[in-house]
Amino acid sequence: MNIYEVNGQFYTDRNQAVIEAIGTHYAVKTHELNDSENMESYREHSDVYIESENEERIDIDYDIDLVDNSDYFEESQIWEVSNIKIKDKLIELIDIDEDLKAAILYDVEMVAEKKNDEK
Question: Does pTM top 0.70 for this prediction?
Answer without folding.
Answer: no
